[in-house]
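**Backbone geometry record:**
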Amino acid sequence: MLTLYFHYKFKKRPSLLSAPINSVLLFVVGTVCATPLLSSAGPVAAPREGFRGRALLSVEPGSKPFTQQEIVGFVIGSISSVLYLLSRLPQIRTNFLRKSTQGISYSLFALVMLGNTLYGLSVLLKNPELGQSEGSYLLHHLPWLVGSLGVLLLDTVISIQFLLYRNRTASSELEPLLPS
């Protein structure tokens, strides 16, 4: 989606350096993401002793610590979750400014909401691995839960906008795009 966005955004402004810069950037990002996966995947962090905070998201002394590969996956999942959450904000803002949801398919949002609900439930209802506590399991899957259930909340906001703005059409939407 980002590639299509930047393609159409800069389509009218071609640059001689854009292709080499994009290639270098893609190579650097790929190398940074792949390097930790290729190294040894031994445990990185030992369980903490002493102070015991929240029990739900804490890693118990008997549970396995994050491996280096799991840390990379957790970071990538967290970035994905943040981008997924941010993806709804421009639409919510546009709907609010226009006071209209014209041109948006509600069935798309309904299906996305159903998919995010089912995905979040599947993660919550899955049993942890043998020897893994529920708190450790939730901690390992936190980015995906936040992403799916957080976007479900934002899609609910868009659904409320559909209800609020269903009988309104903004005057700018009735004007032609090109002058005649």
Notes: Residues 67-169 form a domain with the Monooxygenase fold (CATH 1.20.1280).
